[in-house]
Specification:
By secondary structure, the chain is an alpha/beta fold. The protein has one domain: Rossmann fold (3-Layer(aba) Sandwich), CATH 3.40.50.2020. The chain is built from 6 helices and 8 strands; from the N terminus they run αββααβαβββαββα. The longest helix has 15 residues. The chain binds zinc ion (ZN). Zinc ion binds next to helix 6. The site of zinc ion has 8 residues, from helix 6.
């Protein structure tokens, strides 16, 4: 299964090597460009199928993801589960559900995201669900590249586990070597 997933990422050219500034503020020699995958509905459907299959017996009421990749993943996973798909947007240092999205108290929520590194986007989305009184049943991600296994107080499923080295800016050997830092997604 992991081999097939890795093949999808390679085929799509989603695994980049260099010196990257991650959304978390950390630096890494590897960057997973999720939109190389998400631009292909076929790849997205196949990866979301793994997540949907894993949680299909959990009576999920709604699938929620953090912007931006989480919008597409929540939509497709919800489509396969026959539920709603919603997304949580940045507001200050937190995330909130806008757009008149609703989660009724006690509703069973599956959270989805693309690349898990530090888990901050997931934690913000979990908090947004908690705020509305929803129950987080599980978390599904495309790639878990966290160095250590993270604990979210809910079962985590990843299509692919690929721990990757990250550095704080102060300790980054790529910075020390004078290699230009690239911010993925920024206009070039
Ligand atoms: Zn660096």
């Amino acid at each position: 299964m992991s081999d097939e997933v890795l093949e999808i990422f390679k085929t799509a050219g989603a695994i980049k090597e260099g010196h990257f500034l991650l959304a978390s503020g950390l630096h890494s020699p590897v960057y997973w460009e999720k939109f190389r995958i998400l631009q292909y509905p076929d790849f997205t459907e196949r990866l979301c199928r793994l997540i949907a299959q894993h949680f299909k017996r959990q009576k999920i009421d709604v699938v929620a993801g953090p912007t931006t990749g989480g919008i597409i993943l929540a939509f497709e996973t919800a489509r396969q589960l026959g539920t709603r798909g919603i997304f949580a947007e940045k507001e200050g240092g937190a995330r909130v559900f806008r757009r008149d999205f609703e989660i009724a108290p006690g509703q069973r929520v599956l959270i989805v995201d693309d690349i898990l590194t530090t888990g901050s986007s997931l934690r913000e989305t979990i908090n947004a669900v908690d705020t509305l009184g929803g129950t987080v049943i599980g978390i599904g991600v495309l790639v878990d590249r966290s160095e250590k296994n993270l604990d979210f107080n809910a079962p985590l499923f990843s299509c692919l586990r690929a721990p990757t080295t990250v550095y704080s800016p102060q300790e980054c050997p790529l910075c020390a070597a004078g290699i230009p830092l690239v911010k993925p997604g920024a206009p070039s």
